[in-house]
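Data availability (excerpt). The following record was deposited with the supplementary files.
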Amino acid sequence: MHTKRIIPCLDVKDGKVVKGVNFVGLQEVGDPVALAYEYYKQGADELVFLDITATHEARDTISELCERVAAEIFIPFTVGGGIRTIQDIKKILRAGADKVSLNSAAVKNPELIREGAEIFGSQCIVAAIDAKQRDTKDGWNVVINGGRIDTVIDVLDWVKKVQELGAGEILLTSMDQDGRKQGFDLALCCAVNQIADIPIIASGGCGSLTHFYDVFAQNAADAALAASLFHYGELSVKEVKDYLSYRNIPVRKSISCFDIEELLSKIDFQKQNGLIPTIVQDHMTKEVLMLAYTSIESLKITCKKGLACYYSRSRNELWLKGETSGHYQKIKEIRLDCDHDTLLFSVIQTTAACHTGAYSCFYQILYQIEE
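Predicted structure:
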């Protein structure tokens, strides 16, 4: 069983986190940046921000929020709500978000998923599906606009469609359970997970530790999202993970902000004018793939995303390896040499590391001793 993710969700309205039942009766519960930092410290695997104001003016507010959050936490976060165009997606990702969540706009214009996946990569596109059980009890329909409009689209048909379009993940919310704390809709989650080839985030209805356990024990989702439980301090992310681990559900051990700061404090960035030579090695074969340079900012991004990020001396800018080519390097281990001025990245590299198409940049033999 793969490790399961715990994801706090923050509904944002006018710059504040709010919470209600079935998206109504909203009450203010706190500052989004402060809450994000608290959940990060607790060991959250990811965060989701939903801009429920979703107006054109709010887009600038949520972009500013992304920048503030990205400066404080080093775990992935997703932003959704009112994202209707490729330009909206670009703005949110450039502001610091790792993924965007597409819901109503994707139903009205499915090509938005395809275009977004092609331009930014499937890993950046989350298909948010709000599901409501039909009166006939024989399945679920996709609803939009906060559950107010029934599209009469069958949820399972829509799941197949968003996969074909290139979505990298599904955020599945049960409108019947949302805010009620009676447990996830396991029948819905299981039905979707059985036909889905991409990860499923279960959302709507979590009210206790056992609800987290149930959705994972039945293999109904890859991640579980909750809001009220965390916002009102009924449970912490750490308590949830400790409980799941005790019941033999594998969960991720996240790097906390204190671990990252301690890591940074051990590296002598001043010795190398702010740039640290970084040897990149294949984690499995131990083959040396390339030599790059790491700055404080790029190392923070590396720790946050779990993907290698460097500083390009030729372009004088941060460089997320694979951002344009798709040849990402997944970090498995980071080591520091005895002089504290050189790093070793041990990575999973599935394609070419070199821009020439060679697996390793070190393919030219300059000197060799014949035996």
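Summary of structural features: The first strand starts at residue 5 and ends at 13.
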